[in-house]
Amino acid sequence: QICNQHNAEAPNLEQALHRMAQTEPNLDHDVLWFLLPSYWAKMVVALISFLCFANSYDGDFVFDDSEAIINNKDLRAETPLGDLWHHDFWGSKLSSNTSHKSYRPLTVLTFRINYLFAGGFYPVGFHVINIILHCTISVLMVDVFSILLGGLQFSNKGRRLNLAPKTSLLAALLFAVHPVHTECVAGIVGRADLLCALFFLLSFLGYCKAFRENKEGHNFSMFWVLVSVILGAIAMLCKEQGITILGLNAVFDALVINKLNVLELIQKLLRKDKSLENAGLLRKGLLFRITLLMSGGASILYIRWRIMGTGPPAFTEVDNPASFADSLFVRAINYNYYYSLNAWLLLCPWWLCFDWSMGCIPLIKSVSDWRIIALVALWFCLIGLICQALCSEDSHKRRILTLGLGFLIIPFLPASNLFFRVGFVIAERVIYLPSIGYCVLFTYGFSLLSKQAKKKKILAVAVLGILLINVMRCTLRSSQWRSEEQLFRSALSVCPLNAKVHYNVGKNLADKGNQSAAIKYYREAVRLNPKYVHAMNNLGNILKERNELREAEELLSLAVQIQPDFAAAWMNLGIVQNSLRRFEEAEQSYWTAIKHRKKYPDCYYNLGRLYADLNRHIDALNAWRNATVLKPEHSLAWNNMIILLDNTGNLAQAEAVGREALELIPNDHSLMFSLANVLGKSQKYKESEALFLKAIKANPNAASYHGNLAVLYHRWGNLDLAKKHYEVSLKLDPMAPGTKENYNLLRRKLEQLQKKGS
Fold first, then answer.
1. CA 699 → CA 24, 313, 705, distances in Å?
2. Phi then psi for 419, rounded to 5 degrees?
3. Origin, by domain of life (predicted)?
């Protein structure tokens, strides 16, 4: 639908757009840079953006990828698609108290498609899509920057003109190779920011199309305005920042389409000037479009609020310490310091870290802290730019600076802590969109310097050097994101005071079996943050395995004292107390864990082991049965039920449980082995033999499998096969209990048979 709206007092919008080139200076005129046709410019940007991040294509799942992808049930085919619209980014119900309220169903949907096409959790496909998305976004940036820097103008045939081909290429290259984008591209979870940016830019370009000249000479197209609102909604369903494009479209409309002078408008408002309607704000069509944008935004936010629920996300002090400060002064000072650090990452993206929380940036608590200089410098620069954007007599400068500041600040607002508490101190991923504004300001500054500089070649070489350094930094940083070990260790030099960095390095070492080194990093994490309960829990676990039970108990007791609802620590404390033979305390710890986590199969399993040690067989069986109900694939619980029933002479019941378990977990060789033992005792030799052989095929190096099969053959009277499997068992484990004695008995029997035969 096309809106036919004219204003007798104002010139037609198309005529105004056609005159833009004559009334505004050309930004490219004094700039020494590459001048390429639009197609080739986009090809160059795509190629360079690809080269920056290509080495991340075969990286692992790292850091948050585990929770958002590997452990996210919403990716699996058995989860109904409708659940995506009621769950958060991590697969938790939005109504849950533990939900982060990050509502990004379209991003999760792309993860699910990746998973289904790959046939499992293979990271290559996930990484390739991220790289393609960044290349696509970088190509779109050529068009976006041509509008932001050169203005919006169409030819007589309705084709948009690029009035700043050189500077738009430079700005797009700056965006494509900015190292701060590495987290979004090389980290699979960054897909949310990439998809959000893609639809963000499409919404902006769609809004610009609304003012393309048409045959009827109409002012604007209602269709493209509505498309822009819909694309903004899609951007928000990829990540929350996407909604800010509607505000930016309104700013663009006012400044570029209607050439509104903000300072003049404010002055007229203050004076209640009767000529206000000529200032542009009341120009026919502008208020209508802004009302449409704001109504669309309000509707989108309302629908999201209804889906998300009224409760705010639950964050802890370690996630964002400044937001928990009692003093408003401390909160304000630190928020502004965080802003200055974000600005510094845009200016000098050399010190990059996967996580900036947990002591990485100590709080500023007084004005005597030298770091106050950083936020003073930030506001000095911002105020200077804002004054130029408002007060400059050059309308071209006012427009570019205002748009640059708008794209820098408005997309950052959801992460600013101004409207609600966020769950991080600094997150490099949230600077992906604001970097558009930085690139505009940098490029405009370069054009101003070029205008003044006598040796333009030196200036161009310097900028080219910055681009090359950024390319190398992107390549290096992408390689660090390829594995958790490299990623976590790279953070040690950037944030040595960050307890989470030491915790993650320790966890990575522990997963690889290097417990001694892991202990060192876990201890450092606890030293840096004495309330870090997860580090205490993991350290306590390792000490428990090393039989250092007293210290393990102290750490786990402290962890549950600090966080009384920490179910995992309660369970681990129960295991330690069980090992110390303090059975009543262990039982109480297990039940406390279950109280705080109702569906806790591992805790029921350990509770069953405690009851078995106390010869409370019925209670043990009930506990293990609960574990298998909550987690049908819990092999250890099934095995323990079979073994306990076998040991207590309940062979028929043991057989029934074993068959039930194998129906659920048909390829579990330990279950085959346990059921084969039961069948052998029940003299079902043929079926027992088949299960033993199947278990041995699955795990040929298990000495006990061969040893027990030999016992079966021994009972069955198949002595030659019994001898063969006894020998294999002893070869695999010469100290296997009972096997040597049984083998000697068999040999004596064979010798006796030989003597009788002779």
1. 78, 47, 8
2. -100, -30
3. Eukaryota
Residue from 253, 261, 255 nearest 393 by CA: 261
Other beta carbons less than 10 A from residue 423's beta carbon: 16
Helices (H) and strands (E) in the chain, counts: 34, 2
CA distance 235 to 193: 9
- Could you tell me if 365 and 435 are in contact, meaning their C-beta atoms sit under 8 angstroms apart? no
Q: What is the DSSP annotation of 593-607?
A: HHHH-SS-HHHHHHH
User: What residue has token string 């008995």?
Assistant: 745
As beta bridge partners, residue 93 has: 87
For 737, half-sphere exposure in the C-beta direction (CA atoms, 13 angstrom radius) is 0
Polymer length of the chain? 758
- Helical (H) or strand (E) element with 118: helix 105-118
Residue 260 structure tokens: 């509104």
Q: Tokens 């819909």 map to which residue?
A: 230
Confidence of residue 274 (pLDDT cuts 50, 70, 90): low
Q: How far is the C-alpha of 556 from the C-alpha of 572, rounded, in Å?
A: 7
Over residues 112-140, mean pLDDT? 94
Contacts of 727 (CB under 8 A, 6+ apart): 743
Written as one string, the DSSP assignment of 45-86 is HHHHHHHHHGGGTT----TTHIIIIIT-GGGSTTS-GGGGGT
Per-position b or e across 454-466, b if 16+ CB within 10 A of its CB: eebeebbeebeee
- Cβ-contact 242, 235 below 8 angstroms: yes
391 Cβ contact list (under 8 Å, min separation 6): 263
Neighbours of 373 (CB within 10 A): 10
Contact 164, 190 (CB under 8 A): no
> Any idea what DSSP says for residue 256?
I
Cβ distance 207 to 222 under 8 Å? Answer: no
Q: What 8-state DSSP symbol labels residue 497?
A: T
Identity at 57, one-letter amino acid code: Y
pLDDT for position 275: 58
Q: Give DSSP secondary structure letters for 606-647.
A: HHHHHHHHTT-HHHHHHHHHHHHHH-TT-HHHHHHHHHHHHH
Q: Going by C-beta distance under 8 Å and a sequence separation of 6 or more, which residues neighbour residue 464? A: none
Sorted by sequence, the CB contacts under 8 Å of residue 500 that are 6+ apart come out as 318, 355, 357, 358, 525
pTM of the predicted model, to two decimals?
0.85
Give the CA distances from residue 617 to residues 581, 612, 715, in Å, rounded to whole numbers and listed in that order.
18, 6, 29
Could you read off the pLDDT of 141-179 as tens digits, one per residue?
999 999 999 888 877 777 777 788 999 999 999 999 999
Tell me the H-state helices in 495-582.
499-511, 515-528, 533-545, 549-562, 567-579
Q: Which residues contact 420 (CB under 8 A, 6 or more apart)?
A: 312
Q: Is 278 strand, coil or helix? A: helix
